[in-house]
Design brief:
Protein name: DUF58 domain-containing protein
Number of domains: 4
Helix content: 25-40%
CATH class of the largest domain: Mainly Beta
Largest sheet: 7 strands, mixed
Strand content: 35-45%
Order of helices and strands: HHEEEEEEEEEEEHEHEEHEEHEEEH
Radius of gyration: 34 Å
Number of helices: 7
InterPro entries: DUF58
CATH topology of the largest domain: Immunoglobulin-like
Length: about 350
């Protein structure tokens, strides 16, 4: 189809041709001939642009507040490389919750539906296109579809092709760095989860100050001139901590952020967690993993009632904050974490995407 510039050139050429026919002004043919050549050449150039396909490499899953890179590469529909790259505009649709970053060769606009579009002026098929994506809101978000608008060298003709394929990226909730109140609260919980118990008999040895009197082996002591105690093998059990989370209609984001910020430090310190959410349960711990599954679940979890009000930790999300109750002691989540700063997302343990 003709672009705005192409329609203008065609209009001028048509008017010149009409005037030449009426008034016989041959000088006007000097306008008509170049315009006609440009229009025909441009049409042929766009007409034989190959049918293309896109290979989209979505940015990796990451936390809200972070930025990752997406890549677009083009090939023919037969799978071959494009032997003759062509000029064109590439417009990528980016779902709400993500935001493409403007660069020197790219412009960004917001669509009425809340999605964004980033447009590149490029030689399609020459080099892959890379662009940065800001992760603004937790959830599962879509990149695509994409539109390629091929143009001729003069910008007179355009041929638009929509490539409908899409990819998804998961945005995990933020993980906030715990402050003094948060560390102290979880510290008590970690101590509670560990209980030292007397294990199996290991050996007899000499008494040393500090040994409990109950460990004295009196029968052996009676045969010697010194106290002998029984040594037991260490047997330290780490009990699971139960965490239950829920939220009102507008509190799912706060619930997800608070839950991730509480559970991950516990697991990092070796404490297994049994997590209950409005629509499911998870086990997360140093022995059986689960951090990745938890983050993916928290990325899309909806609001709902707290499933286990008697859990060791009860988290309730509200529109502006969450409450965290640790074995009967209630705190505002905002009081448990350090003050938010730009880019304040604690690096989470590496988990499977």
């Amino acid at each position: 189809m003709l672009t705005r510039r192409g329609r203008a050139v065609a209009g001028v050429a048509g008017l010149a041709l009409l005037l030449a026919g009426i008034f016989g002004a041959r000088a006007l043919n000097a306008v008509v001939a170049p315009a006609a050549v440009a229009l025909v050449a441009g049409y042929l150039q766009v007409r034989f642009v190959p049918a293309v396909a896109v290979d989209r490499t979505p940015p990796e899953n990451a936390h809200a507040g972070e930025t990752r890179t997406a890549e677009l590469s083009f090939r023919t529909r037969d799978g071959d490389s494009i032997s003759r790259p062509f000029l064109g505009d590439v417009t990528e649709r980016v779902g709400e919750g993500l935001w493409p970053v403007t660069s020197e060769n790219a412009t960004v606009r917001e669509r009425p539906d809340g999605d964004a579009e980033i447009t590149f002026e490029t030689a399609v098929g020459a080099e892959p296109i890379e662009y940065e994506v800001e992760y603004r809101q937790r959830g599962q978000h879509t990149l695509g579809p994409l539109t390629v608008t091929a143009t001729d060298a003069f910008g007179l003709h355009a041929r638009e092709t929509e490539l409908r394929g899409t990819e998804t990226t998961i945005v995990f909730p933020r993980v906030r760095r715990l402050g003094v109140v948060g560390r102290r609260s979880l510290g008590r919980l970690q101590e509670y989860s560990r209980s030292d118990q007397r294990g199996e008999f290991e050996e007899l040895r000499e008494y040393v100050p500090g040994d409990p009197l109950r460990d004295i082996h009196w029968k052996t002591t009676a045969k010697r001139d010194e106290l002998i105690v029984t040594e037991f093998a260490a047997d330290t059990d780490v009990a699971s901590v139960t965490v239950a989370a829920g939220a009102n209609a507008e509190g799912a984001d706060a619930m997800a952020e608070a839950t991730a910020s509480v559970v991950l430090p516990l697991v990092a310190d070796g404490v297994p967690v049994e997590l209950s959410l409005p629509r499911g349960e998870l086990r997360v711990g140093p022995e059986y993993g689960g951090q990745g599954a938890m983050l993916r679940t928290l990325a899309v979890v909806d609001s709902g009632p707290v499933p286990n009000p008697d859990a060791d930790v009860v988290i309730k999300g509200r529109a502006d904050d969450a409450t965290v109750e640790v074995r009967g002691r209630r705190h505002q989540f905002s009081e448990m974490v350090e003050a938010r700063t730009t880019g304040d997302t604690t690096p989470a343990p590496e988990v499977e995407a």
